[in-house]
Write a structure and sequence with these properties.
The protein is α+β, with helices and mostly antiparallel strands. It contains seven helices and eleven strands.
Length: 350
């Protein structure tokens, strides 16, 4: 292309003056529209209130303590029975049968809650404490029970009741065996580190063991004595002791948390201690498993001034409102921690 073929573009001053432009005004920060907010990822959204679930009957204290007592007593009997002889023999089984029944019955009570709460660590620690403690208590209380039984038999004989078919003799055995139930309650309270739990357990254990002792002789007559009567009799001793412990503890409780939803729905945690820790580590008094959103130490329940104060270390909601710092609990309050929901209850005072 040559220079002659190029067209020269000429713009006149009149054409330039006719050109218009759209001017975008400058804005200051105060003039800018507000930015849309989509929330902060560090601020958890308020969770939906969990629906109450139907609790398992096996999470009720009188059920799992009854089963624990039954299994423990039968295990103790099973270990000693091969060395036991009838008619007041003196083989090792005759010496060890009652201490072993008491030892394994106490062990069952001590680890029952750990098993229910699925804390293998707590269960192992409690077994290590309970076995030697149960052996010592078993021998001491067996001697005390023999003393009580012989005194009661002497009273029965003086009153003319000399046959084992006489109900007065059954009562004598029941009074003596109440001592074994006291042992179970003492160990249960020691493991729970609570004086009140010890006293409630001892009372319930004494009542249950007394019932077991009361029906031991009738069972012996029905099964014609021997191995079967001892197996059934000691099994019922453990069962009755555990059931009574659970029922007495529940009847006398003052403050407690009932799990309304989550893996432990139906379980109740009685608040005995001045301070109760809640979290996902097995060291916590209330161990909440299978929820990574729960902190190792998530909350603390503190009893002071006749009230229970909830101190939140992680996200805790009461009736859908997040707790910041501390909150005094009212009876009937619904507490949500992760996938768990609790109802706090207090006994009405007249």
């Amino acid at each position: 292309m040559t220079d002659q073929n190029k067209e020269i573009l000429r713009v006149s001053l009149d054409e330039l003056s006719a050109v218009t432009t759209d001017v975008v005004p400058l804005t200051t920060p105060d003039d800018r529209p507000a930015a849309k907010s989509y929330g902060n990822i560090h601020e958890p959204a308020t969770p939906e209130i969990l629906a109450q679930e139907k609790g398992s009957i096996f999470l009720k204290a009188w059920i799992y303590l009854g089963l624990a007592g039954l299994i423990g007593a039968v295990v103790g009997w099973g270990i000693a029975e091969p060395g036991f002889v009838d008619d007041q023999g003196h083989r090792w089984g005759n010496i060890w049968i009652l201490p072993l029944v008491v030892t394994f019955m106490c062990t069952g009570f001590a680890v029952a809650e750990s098993i229910v709460e699925r804390s293998a660590r707590k269960a192992a620690i409690r077994i290590g404490i309970t076995l030697p403690l149960g052996v010592v208590l078993g021998f001491i209380l067996s001697m005390l029970a023999d003393l009580i039984y012989n005194i009661a038999l002497g009273i029965c004989a003086a009153a003319g009741a000399q046959s084992f078919h006489n109900p007065a003799v059954w009562i004598a055995r029941g009074l003596a065996w109440a001592v074994f139930g006291i042992a179970g309650g003492i160990v249960y309270g020691i493991i729970g580190r609570s004086g009140r739990k010890t006293s409630y357990g001892a009372l319930g254990g004494a009542l249950g063991a007394a019932i077991g002792g009361l029906i031991f002789d009738p069972i012996s007559f029905a099964t014609h004595g021997g191995v079967a009567s001892r197996a059934v009799g000691f099994g019922l001793l453990g069962l009755a002791t555990g059931i009574a412990m659970g029922l007495v503890e529940s009847a006398l409780k003052d403050r407690w948390l009932y799990v309304t939803s989550g893996p432990l729905a139906g379980k109740q945690f009685i608040l005995y201690k001045p301070q109760t820790n809640v979290g996902r580590t097995q060291n916590c008094d209330i161990y909440l498993f299978k929820d990574p959103d729960i902190l190792p130490q998530h909350a603390t329940l503190v009893q002071k001034g006749g009230r229970v104060h909830l101190i939140a270390d992680g996200p805790v909601y009461i009736s859908g409102q997040r707790v910041h710092g501390s909150r005094v609990l009212e009876s009937g309050s619904i507490i949500q921690v992760g996938r768990y929901s609790f109802r706090y209850q207090e006994r009405l005072r007249g």
